[in-house]
Amino acid sequence: MGEFELIRNYFAAAPCAQPGEGVALGIGDDCALLSVAPGEQLAISTDTLVAGVHFPGVCDPFLLGQRALGVSASDLAAMGASPLAFTLALTLPDVSADWLEAFARGLNEMAQGCSMRLIGGDTTRGPLSLTVTVFGSVPTGQALTRSGARPGDLLCVGGPLGDGAGALPLVLNQRSTEASTTQVLLARYWSPQPQLGLGRALRGKATAALDISDGLLADCGHIALASGVRLQVERERLPMSGALLSFFGLEQARQAALAGGDDYVLAFTLPPSELDSLVSAGWPVSVVGRVVEGQGVALIDDQGQDITPLTRGYQHFRETP
Ligand code: ADP
Ligand code: MG
């Protein structure tokens, strides 16, 4: 199968690659064309997943397709953007029709769940890697950046933390546990559900936001730095799933919630006056701390004692000490 046949059969023919709102021109020309409504800005983010680094080289291609788009779409959620479209740059060691068919099906399922259209990409030979670039739109000036947190704001998250890290020993076949726990944790890893609705609901309310990909403490550090404030995380308030607690136990579950990666849950800062309306509208909002004057991130226990650990999350290239 040649490159063009591959693109045509598995990607251009996918339901998510058909014409749709906001897409003036899709796959097949030198560029795709997006139409952005007046008064809207285009939000763009790109993520690369490399086999053996971000996912096991041997894995279910359907799940990989879901995950590749899910983690990228999560960046649109974190910005408060409405999803529009995405491109896929795919590097494959060889061409397997079964692999491509399952991968494209997984990608399509996530794309349709997120209302995003596949508008182009690139296909090359080499070690397995996937780069997804997502495009969304947001009313001018309303994007949720990392820089607006103010002392007095609450620090909130959009759901249970740590499940991504909890799933890792299962993904890597290092441990096993009962079927119901396995199912919950693996689903959270392989099919992350980008919090696109919550992101949009936070427009005009949250003062800063991001999606947690490297662990709560590490990612809160980005808000603290960009906003010039200190974030206090309260250990007793971390929301954790029953599946994670039963698999890991309380101590290790807390570790996963604080420093594990791959959660793709939103973390955001919110003036206290905005909390009730979000909660009564049914949005999942858990208060896990607050914003104070100062800098950096602190973890505090139920006595208010500082118990901040030294390592905070995953980094590909560590800072020199
Ligand atoms: P060019 O040589 O102009 O870069 P390509 O031959 O790489 O074009 O791709 C032809 C068309 O197919 C382009 O519209 C491109 O965006 C699209 N495309 C290539 N690979 C993929 C892919 N993996 N998924 C979706 N579209 C793709
Ligand atoms: Mg090309």
From TrEMBL:
Domain PurM-like C-terminal: 150-301
Keywords of the record: ATP-binding, Kinase, Magnesium, Metal-binding, Nucleotide-binding, Thiamine biosynthesis, Transferase
Binding site for Mg(2+) 1: T46, D47, D122
Pfam annotation, one family: AIRS_C
GO BP terms, alphabetized: thiamine biosynthetic process; thiamine diphosphate biosynthetic process
The keyword Kinase is annotated on this UniProt entry: yes
Entry binding sites for Mg(2+) 5: D214
Family named by the database record: Belongs to the thiamine-monophosphate kinase family.
PANTHER family: THIAMINE-MONOPHOSPHATE KINASE
Protein name per UniProt: Thiamine-monophosphate kinase
Organism of this sequence: Pseudomonas abietaniphila
